[in-house]
Design goal:
The complex is a heterodimer. By secondary structure, chain A is α/β, with parallel strands linked by helices. Chain A folds into 2 domains: 19-228 and 363-424, 3-Layer(aba) Sandwich (Rossmann fold), CATH 3.40.50; 264-355, formyl-coa transferase, domain 3 (2-Layer Sandwich), CATH 3.30.1540. Chain A contains 18 helices and 12 strands. Chain A is elongated. By secondary structure, chain B is an alpha/beta fold. Chain B is built from 16 helices and 14 strands. In chain B, the strands form 4 sheets. Chain B has a 6-stranded parallel beta sheet, with helices on both faces. Chain B has a 3-stranded antiparallel beta sheet with strand order 9-10-11, with helices on one face. The radius of gyration of chain B is 26 Å and the shape is elongated. Classes of the chains: A alpha/beta, B alpha/beta.
């Protein structure tokens, strides 16, 4: 790969100098360790050639439109956009962990690392002998982060999960939807991302603690328990007031129960499936809304005379609002309402946020990196502008086994002939 | 497993002081995430209380500044100090607090900062070790910096909302419950604070963090971003399952008790198919699916609608809890759609001792969610009820006076 700018070098950032043996795969783990890689950690992803990571297989390809599930039987592992998205700034190696030689190489890598991460089903690391106790023998101050759906203890520890299952079990799907209807829940694996963020924070806290004390840690984060923490105040309403969330009045769709915001909803705009969210919390904002509407006569109705009255009469109020919004451009309306001090936001697609949103573009959230197979691609940045800390985006995601020679020969000093033999034997 | 809930060990953020000037759940949850790991979080409130105290629901339905469950949820383990920042020289006590602090969380947008005379450039210059964490709707710069937001508006403009709702697109996108736009930005605030603390361990210097809820939502849309980065296609919302470029089968199955389970029927997965049929067969409900013709993937794909119907019937005559546990025992990734009230008695959460109780005067013990992380090296911070309005004003301010006196004494000596 000489001269292509893809050779690993010295990293910058607060995590520079920290080597991570990264067994993570799929979404949660990869998204969590991406954060470490972005900020300077040398994250070495271990992959299995015989069991490709799902994001390498999912058909999210440049110039080819397919739905999730319409996979190639024999996909090009280096073409997957989702893998590129999750694994920038990381190194990639392949190890066949079913072989003794493979496991012994992994041990050597762990011995040279100070962080080990994984998000397998419980029991996989144990099968390889990689318990926290063993990891500490290999690397005494190791931090061992274990990310799973249900946590590593309890009767459901081995339950299978992915984002939608976590969302269901934790309750955050149930609390989303129109009253009396089936839940609308989530149209994405929100909990894969959120669990990843909490796992990343947990790792950073453990590293911070180790820097101060020299002590490592084992970390157990259950995505379901993270999801329960994200239920918000409704959980206390249930706990303190015995409130039932299974009645016909809950959940409340786009309306709030608290505070008495009205109008508070998503209204149709000009175009196919185009919408605007409007949220009015007080009299001043209501006056602002009316001024943009041109002070319509219907607003004089006593049903709309106060915030409390409007809140109590939202069906009638919403009928007026949507009649007014439906022939308007969602962005023009958003700016007009914001100009009058009303919280309003066009329901934006990713085409809007990535290609056309002046607020996002001006702050440089998305950035571009080249990839040998995929070519130039955009990436999700970190939504934090640091005055001092550097996010060094040095490379797109590794090709399958791209860094084998660097990691095994340069870092672990495996002699050339032994390395060639490992390749020939299918260990790498 | 050494990572379990334990007490008596140190907390990772012990010894750190956080000053929180937060008017919304984004900043408040950020402060809470630090408090639950041992930081001392001093919440500055106006004399009539934070806006979050005026948001219900309320304990036993009695509205007051000290009974808001919304406030309790986001502010446990904090100290409350009331200050009138708009009064003449009103910022002086804030500056005195920042002088002794490690982290300053602030949710004020640029116009509000200007009106108050709070200038982050001066703050970061005067307190070089301080980590200033601005958590705002759109960030401190850019054409929308002073636009108003809310959880719904943030989820709309940032993109997640476009993926959520029902198959029927005459129904607008539906906001997922629980303040997730605010929770998303708080997650990044936590990460940002930790990165800045690690930076400070190396350099001794603090810094300014400008965190935007809009951007946090824009990177929390999962597949919708790569679908636009790569094939440049839009995803379309579907009922309680992934938004996709083209429609997929329903994944919500109604059960005999009226509750739902989530299960994605993937007929192309041979092992999953066999497990499903064996499970249904054991309950005597596999019907025609045991027919050898269904062993063929192509045949199953061609008869998907028929299979979905048989599976729907199977779920419809059994209780959700049984379907969840038996399905999981069969190795299938099935999730029951729990309601919040179901969680307190969930056998797994009970066995993990997940929930904690917090003592509230007049109410007795109240059940709260426990911490989401378990560490072998850290003890758990006991959850303490949110402060009453101004509960710690005197204690914190008199400490400031003492510190000022000590400083003067040092100077004299």
């Amino acid at each position: 790969m000489g001269g292509t700018g893809r050779e690993p070098g010295r990293r910058q950032g607060p995590l520079a100098g920290i080597r991570v043996t990264d067994f993570c795969w799929m979404g949660v783990g990869a998204c969590a360790t991406r954060l470490l890689a972005d900020f300077g950690a040398e994250v070495i992803r271990i992959e299995d050639r015989n069991r490709l990571d799902m994001p390498r297989r999912l058909p999210i390809y440049k110039g080819e439109v397919r739905t999730y599930g319409e996979e190639d039987a024999n996909p090009d592992p280096d073409k997957g956009g989702l893998f590129n998205n999750y694994n920038r700034n990381k190194l990639g190696v392949t190890i066949n962990m079913r072989t003794q030689k493979g496991r012994s190489l992994a041990d050597r890598l762990i011995a040279s690392s100070s962080v080990v991460t994984e998000n397998f089903a419980p029991g996989v690391m144990e099968r390889w002998g990689l318990t926290y106790e063993r990891l500490r023998e290999l690397s005494p101050q190791v931090i061992f982060a274990r990310m799973s759906g249900f946590g590593h203890s309890g009767p459901h520890a081995e339950f299978r999960s992915y984002g939608p299952v976590v969302q269901a079990v934790s309750g955050i799907s149930h609390i989303s939807g129109l009253p009396g209807e089936e839940p609308s829940g989530w149209g994405l694996s929100y909990m894969d991302n959120e669990a990843a963020f909490f796992n990343a924070a947990a790792l950073l806290m453990a590293i911070y603690h180790r820097n101060a004390t020299g002590e490592g840690a084992e970390i157990d984060v259950s995505a379901v328990e993270a999801g329960i923490n994200l239920l918000g105040p409704i959980l206390l309403d249930v706990a303190v007031n015995g409130r039932s969330t299974r009645g016909p009045d809950y959940p409340t769709g786009n309306r709030l129960e608290h505070p008495d915001a009205a109008p508070h909803g998503v209204y149709p705009c000009l175009g196919v499936d185009r919408w605007i969210a409007i949220a009015v919390f007080n009299e001043t904002q209501w006056r602002g809304l009316l001024s943009v509407m041109g002070d319509p006569a219907w607003a004089d109705d006593p049903r709309f005379a106060s915030q409390a009255a409007r809140f109590a009469n939202q069906d009638a109020l919403d009928a007026h609002v949507l009649e007014w919004t439906r022939d308007k451009d969602r962005h023009a309306l958003m700016h007009a309402l914001q100009g009058a001090g009303v919280a309003a936001g066009a329901v934006q697609t990713t085409e809007d946020t990535i290609d056309h949103d002046p607020q996002i573009a001006g702050r440089g959230l998305f950035f571009e990196l080249d990839h040998p197979v995929i070519g130039e691609a955009l990436f999700e940045g970190t939504p934090i502008k640091f005055s001092r800390t550097i996010q060094e985006n040095w490379r797109s995601a590794p090709l399958l086994g791209e860094d084998n020679a660097h990691v095994f020969k340069s870092l672990l000093r495996v002699p050339d002939d032994e390395y060639e033999a490992l390749v020939a034997e299918g260990v790498l | 497993m050494d990572a379990r809930r334990r007490t008596g060990l140190p907390h990772p953020l012990q010894g750190l002081t956080v000053i929180e000037l937060a008017e919304d759940p984004g900043g408040e949850y950020a402060g809470q995430l630090l408090a639950e790991m041992g930081a001392k979080v001093i919440k500055i409130e106006p004399p009539d209380g934070s806006p979050s105290r005026a948001v219900g629901p309320y304990a036993k339905g009695e509205a007051s500044a000290d009974t808001s469950l919304n406030f309790w949820h986001y502010n446990s383990n904090k100290l409350s100090v009331t200050l009138d920042l708009a009064a003449p020289n009103g910022l002086a006590p804030v500056m005195a607090l920042l002088d002794r602090a490690d982290i300053f969380i602030c949710t004020l947008q640029p116009a509000a900062l200007k009106a108050l005379g709070l200038d982050f450039e001066i703050v970061t210059r005067d307190f070089p070790r301080l980590i200033v964490v601005s958590v705002t709707a759109f960030g401190l710069t850019g054409p929308w910096a002073d636009y108003r937001s809310s959880d719904l508006v943030a989820l709309a403009a940032g993109g997640p909302l476009n993926s959520c709702g029902y198959d029927d697109h005459t129904i607008p996108p539906i906001r997922p419950g629980g303040n997730q736009g605010y929770h998303t930005v708080a997650s990044f605030a936590h990460i940002g604070v930790m990165l800045a603390l690690l930076e400070r361990q190396k350099t001794g210097l603090g810094q300014m963090l400008d965190i935007s809820m809009h951007e946090a939502c824009a990177v929390n849309v999962e597949l919708a971003n790569p679908y636009w980065f790569y094939p440049r296609v839009h995803v379309h919302r579907q009922t309680c399952r992934h938004a996709q470029p083209s429609p997929t089968q329903s994944a919500l199955f109604r059960c005999g008790d009226g509750r739902y389970v989530y299960y994605t029927l993937i007929v192309g997965d041979q092992r999953g198919w066999q497990s499903l049929v064996a499970w249904m067969d054991a309950a005597g409900m596999a019907a025609q699916l045991t027919d050898p013709a269904f062993a063929d993937i192509k045949y199953r794909q061609d008869h998907f609608g028929e299979i979905q119907e048989v599976v729907e019937c199977f779920f419809l005559v059994h209780d959700s809890d049984r379907m969840y546990k038996e399905g999981q025992a069969a190795g299938l990734p099935i999730g029951v759609l729990n309601a919040p009230e179901d969680l307190f008695t969930d056998e797994h959460l009970v066995a993990r001792e997940f929930f904690v109780t917090v003592e509230h005067e007049g109410l007795g013990p109240v059940v709260y969610p426990g911490c989401m992380y378990r560490f072998s090296a850290f003890g758990e911070v006991a959850r303490i009820r949110a402060p009453k309005l101004g509960e710690h004003t005197d204690a914190v301010l008199s400490e400031l006076v003492e510190q000022a006196a000590e400083k003067t004494e040092e100077r004299v000596q």
